[in-house]
Amino acid sequence: MAELLTHVLVAYAVLTIAGWRVDWLTPRWVALGTVGALLPDLNQLGRLLSGPTIERMLGVPFAYGALHTVGGIVLLAALVALFFAQRRRAFAVLVAGGLSHLLLDALKIHADGRAGTWLYPLTWWRHPAPDLYVSADSRVLAAALVGATAVLVAGRYRTARREGSHAD
Question: Which of 34, 37, 76, 137 is surrounded by the fewest CB atoms within 10 Å?
Answer without folding.
Answer: 137
